[in-house]
């Protein structure tokens, strides 16, 4: 666990995601939670070694399954998310929990550790900006479209620290979960501006970085959008986005054991971008009528 500034902690060693915690006068505010029970227990122990205080709130930076399962292991009276995330979670399919656990586990013994897991719904939602106050600590939240329309950032301007969720991940192919890549690029442009008070960036996955880490993600999104737009404008079907996967695969490293999974992630993202262009055309046609 690393203390980025007094009372602001980050842990990058857990499986799947990077998590954070802010120590306030009333207790801890968690920024995402480890999905695996063993990692969650370890996070509990790390925080207890810092201060014997309760977890007062959890902030969800988006609605990816890796962030939803972990909330079950923490008894937080307040769970905060963007309104889009709240709506998504209220309409989860019946099989979501089972398929999510299957995706995280490799064998039956590991699966059994998830016994009793559930997905608590957020208690508070917001649409644009929000501030949490616990004790003397104010925690500002910003709605910043990224891999989902409900992506949010936790911005601590006095310490110049920013938690971005999966809007930035390091050294791996990004998750593109909704048709918001144009807005995602704008969010990253905002972050790169000199007047945006953030020197230390905590990504959704990977080590702590600085603003330069926005460039690889932006370049990836621009490339994917150019390739999909060319395909879409040529009148080719969405299924043909599979032809673009090899080029995108080369942008970030990929272990051989993860090849199939990463290829599916890339293809899913390309399909989302295709639907983004298709939806934009439909909206333009409607506005002209």
Taken from the alpha-carbon principal axes, the silhouette is globular
Query: Cα distance, first to last residue?
Result: 57 Å
β-strand percent reads: 15-25%
The biggest beta sheet, please?
7 strands, mixed
What's a concise summary of this model?
The chain is of the alpha/beta class and 289 residues long. The chain has nine helices and twelve strands.
Word description of this protein:
The chain has helices spanning 37-50, 65-68, 83-90, 96-104, 108-112, 181-192, 214-233, 245-249, 259-288, and strands at 2-5, 8-11, 19-24, 27-31, 55-59, 78-82, 124-126, 129-134, 137-143, 152-156, 161-169, 200-205. It has 289 residues and is α/β, with parallel strands linked by helices. The chain has two domains: 2-219, Ribonuclease Z/Hydroxyacylglutathione hydrolase-like (Metallo-beta-lactamase, Chain A), CATH 3.60.15.10; 220-288. A seven-stranded mixed sheet has the order 1-2-3-4-5-6-7. It has a five-stranded mixed sheet with strand order 8-9-10-11-12, with helices on one face. Helix 6 (181-192) runs antiparallel to helix 7 (214-233) and helix 7 (214-233) packs across helix 9 (259-288). The radius of gyration is 19 Å and the shape is globular. It starts with a strand and ends with a helix.
